[in-house]
Design brief:
132 residues; globular; Ribosomal Protein S8, Chain: A, domain 1
């Protein structure tokens, strides 16, 4: 069975593993997925990640992060652009997620960055997902 939106599949795996209090989750790798995971790591939503290979299948092992009460740090993940409906936004109208407490991930001409950095660099792009 093929997946029509691999990034949405990755976000769903992270969301489900986080709500089930799993320590880690494995997803198949791609350049876009790796960039999104790097942003999640830099913004403090996951502990760490590492690239693994098993039976000639490259994957990313994502180590989830929880607070002192064992509640997930990631409260929500929402895919914005889909294969059937792409969302593009200029830097002036870049939305803020939960009044700045969340992160917007944007694919720009300079790479995958956060919405805050895109606004600072005055670059628009495709809104990939939001995390809070």
């Amino acid at each position: 069975m093929s997946v029509s939106d691999p990034l949405a599949d990755m976000l769903t795996k992270i969301r489900n593993a986080s709500s089930a209090r799993f320590e880690k989750v494995d997803v198949t790798t791609s350049k876009l997925k790796l960039e999104v995971v790097k942003i999640l790591k830099n913004e403090g939503y996951i502990k760490n990640f590492k690239k693994t290979t098993k039976d000639n299948i490259n994957s990313i092992r994502i180590f989830l992060k929880y607070d002192t009460e064992e509640k997930p740090i990631i409260h929500g993940l929402k895919k914005i652009s889909t294969p059937g409906r792409r969302f593009y936004m200029g830097y002036k109208k870049m939305p803020r997620i939960y009044n700045g407490h969340g992160v917007l991930i944007v694919s720009t001409s300079t790479g995958v960055i956060t919405g805050r950095k895109a606004s600072e660099k005055k670059i628009g792009g495709e809104l990939i997902c939001s995390v809070w």
